[in-house]
Amino acid sequence: MNIEKKWKRTSLGEFIKLKSGFAFKSKDYTKPGEGTVPIIRISDIQQGKVYTSNAEHVPSEQADVKFLIEKGDLLIAMSGATTGKTGVYSEDNIAFLNQRVGNLKLVNEEDSCLRYRDYLVQSLQSEILKRAYGAAQPNISAKEFESIEILLAPHHEQKRIASKLDAIFEKLEMAQSRLEKVPKLLKRFRMSVLSAAVSGELTEEWRDVNNADDWEHVSLKQVGKGFNYGSSAKSKKEGSVPVLRMGNLQDGKLDWSDLVYTSDEKEIEKYKLESGDILFNRTNSPELVGKTSIYRGEREAIFAGYLIKVQGTERLNSEYLNIQLNSPHARDYCWQVKTDGVSQSNINAQKLK
């Protein structure tokens, strides 16, 4: 099918007229209440919708009906860094249009589809921005907006297109909602596996088959060693060796993206890390105190004073200790024994042992 025979090549102004807002004066702003009306500014347009929760208000007698906004109206930012962003006004109460905001009204409401209007304008974002950034200050005038060339679908096809897009985007939103739940589900699953691992449940069948020794309950000091505090010397932005801090401990691993350094040979010699060392965060917020990561010798490093270094022994594998200290059981223990300050909590080496 030749789309040109069914669709009409025309200017956007033949389908939509852009009505500019009024320059309400800030001295007339008043508290919301009876006898006042909200005025919509660019900042009230967010993520495809228009919100009045933070809108300024003016006395209703100062609002001209020419700038009235009604439910279903599509508004557009006409200037500034967010030029071209749009939002649908979906509230039952009326509002009024402030300057630098445009109201995109259909020329012929009977033969046009509102939802098609919304999707059409969204599809023209790159063209709107191209025209808006022609000057030093981003700005799109009504004349410039309405001169954009479009291929306009017949009314019956507008409704069909809008309906199809509604269905597609509804499925996308549902998929997005499910995806947003995945990290929480993965975290819950990870904690469940960790709990099973450190309680012996995960390897119970293996132990039965291989006649392995039963587990025993011990304190960390019975099987671990070290329990040393890190360097209290001031670190620098540059230096020869990284100084690992509490922010570098992330989910049982080390994050090397935000580092400070030292070149002090004595500090390096005293606090140098060895592969397999466990770093325990002794001071942090109540939620984060006790977080733990393992150093696997990725690069030469020392550790800072808010961390405690623990080392494995013949009876205690360092990788296993890292799993243990990140388990729900260990997190619960940290929550119980922490000492709370004004904004931070602390767990000293004695409590860790």
Automatic annotation (TrEMBL):
GO terms for molecular function: DNA binding; endonuclease activity. The keyword Hydrolase applies. It comes from the Bacteria. Transmembrane segments: none annotated. One of its GO terms (biological process) is DNA restriction-modification system. Keywords: DNA-binding, Endonuclease, Hydrolase, Nuclease, Restriction system. Residues 5-182 form the Type I restriction modification DNA specificity domain. InterPro entries: Restrct_endonuc_typeI_TRD (IPR000055), Restrct_endonuc_typeI_TRD_sf (IPR044946), Type-I_RE_S_subunit (IPR051212). PANTHER family: TYPE I RESTRICTION ENZYME ECOKI SPECIFICITY SUBUNIT, TYPE-1 RESTRICTION ENZYME ECOKI SPECIFICITY PROTEIN. Belongs to the type-I restriction system S methylase family. This is Restriction endonuclease subunit S.
